[in-house]
Design a protein that fits this description.
Number of domains of chain B: 1
Number of strands of chain B: 6
Structural class of chain B: alpha+beta
Distance between the termini of chain B: 19 Å
Strand order of the largest sheet of chain B: 4-1-6
Structural class of chain A: mainly alpha
Distance between the termini of chain A: 120 Å
CATH superfamily of chain B: Jelly Rolls
Order of helices and strands of chain B: EEEEHEEH
Strand content of chain B: over 45%
Oligomer: heterodimer
Radius of gyration of chain B: 14 Å
Largest sheet of chain B: 3 strands, antiparallel
Number of strands of chain A: 2
Order of helices and strands of chain A: HHHHHHHHHHHHHEEH
Number of helices of chain B: 2
Helix content of chain B: 10-25%
Shape of chain A: rod-shaped
Number of domains of chain A: 2
CATH architecture of chain B: Sandwich
CATH class of chain B: Mainly Beta
Largest sheet of chain A: none
Shape of chain B: flat
Chain lengths: 289, 72
């Protein structure tokens, strides 16, 4: 009367039972004579190979001590569930389960769950090797990251510098006579920022009084005129610069015969004669051009 | 510093004739030109007299404002 049916057991579960139960055959003489023809079951090619070996007589499925009947011990041992072979206990048995004291059912469930859900084994994240970063490398990284994060403002700064450089070179050309105001294109003038224009304008004004009369540059006024003509552009693009221009310049109109200023005096005109509007209307001035 | 936007102006300077000096028209300025730039930098006395020949319009850069903008 065999209670073991090969087809009623599952794979390694069967192996587990066969190896753990086999020592008990001696305890049950009625069963010891009816040992089933147990062939370890492995799915796939391994099972075929074992069955082939059994058919050739190399495997000894009836012998519980046969190495072919102990794949479970090897596999469990290799998995670290329990040792390959424990030391013999007081009765001389070397049953690993008995020695460790793991309940049979629990071990079976663990075994099934392990193989039925192979993907459930959690893989520990691979640790990247720790590396000491030198301060110089850290600084470089910070620079790179800051460039990446704040790419747009950097570009804006670069564009700003570029425009200023263009304005400077333009004024230098004008100063040295390599360029003429009349030959300047509107786009050239539009690219000249009015604030850089103002600074250059004042530099030119200083030059006008510090240099000999023959070397004075009067082109600045013509540039101012052209810039004023493009006041709409500056309104949109350079409102602050335009505001500074508003503040810097005053507007005044005088009648024919009126004295603008008199030689030997410091003041330009008396206040009542100088009709200055605090907020000069550039559009009004631009209307002349 | 003055920038003549429209009209025209005459610049008069004193011309010495013997021991006396007389105002003499030396220059006519047309738009768009500047004058009075010396007063922009220094509190110097005016070196000439400027009179409007016709109705004029000016853009004026005063010394105070110039210093403000210069400091930006």
């Amino acid at each position: 009367m065999s209670t073991f049916r090969k087809d009623s057991l599952l794979g390694l579960n069967f192996n587990l039972i066969s190896s753990t139960v086999s020592p008990t055959y001696d305890s049950y003489p009625s069963l010891s004579n009816q040992k089933p023809n147990l062939v370890p079951y492995f799915p796939g090619a391994k099972q075929n190979a074992i069955q082939k070996a059994a058919s050739q007589g190399r495997a000894q499925p009836n012998n519980p001590n046969s190495p072919q009947n102990l794949p479970k011990q090897a596999s469990l041992g290799s998995l670290g569930l329990f040792p390959m072979q424990s030391a013999p206990d007081s009765t001389g048995r070397t049953s690993p389960i008995g020695k460790i004291g793991i309940p049979f059912a629990k071990l079976t469930v663990e075994k099934i769950s392990y193989f039925s859900r192979p993907n459930s084994v959690k893989k520990l994240p691979r640790k990247s090797p720790e590396r000491n970063i030198s301060p110089s490398e850290l600084q470089l990284l910070k620079k790179v990251s800051s460039k990446e994060i704040a790419g747009t403002p950097k570009k804006a700064d670069q564009l700003h510098k570029k425009l200023n450089l263009k304005a400077k070179s333009l004024f230098q050309k004008l100063q040295t006579g390599r360029a003429s105001v009349d030959n300047l294109s509107e786009s050239d003038l539009l690219q000249v920022r009015i604030d850089s224009f103002l600074s250059n304008f004042f530099k030119l004004a200083i030059d006008a009084v510090t240099k000999p009369k023959s070397q004075r540059v009067t082109l600045d006024i013509a540039i101012l005129r052209k810039c004023l003509a493009n006041v709409d552009f500056f309104k949109e693009q350079e409102p602050k610069a335009l505001e500074s221009l508003y503040k810097a310049l005053s507007h005044c109109s005088l009648k024919s015969g009126e004295v603008v200023y008199t030689r030997g005096k410091r003041k330009l005109l008396r206040c009542k004669e100088l009709r200055i509007f605090p907020q000069m209307r550039l559009e009004q001035i631009c209307g002349f051009y | 510093m003055w920038i003549l936007l429209s009209g025209s102006i005459e610049i008069y300077e004193y011309e010495k004739i013997g021991e006396n000096s007389k105002l003499k028209e030396t220059k006519i300025i047309l738009p768009i030109n500047e004058f009075g730039e010396l007063g922009l930098l220094e509190k110097a006395k005016r070196s000439a007299t400027v009179i409007c020949k016709e109705d004029c319009e000016f853009a004026i850069l005063e010394r105070v404002h110039y210093k403000e903008v210069e400091s930006i």
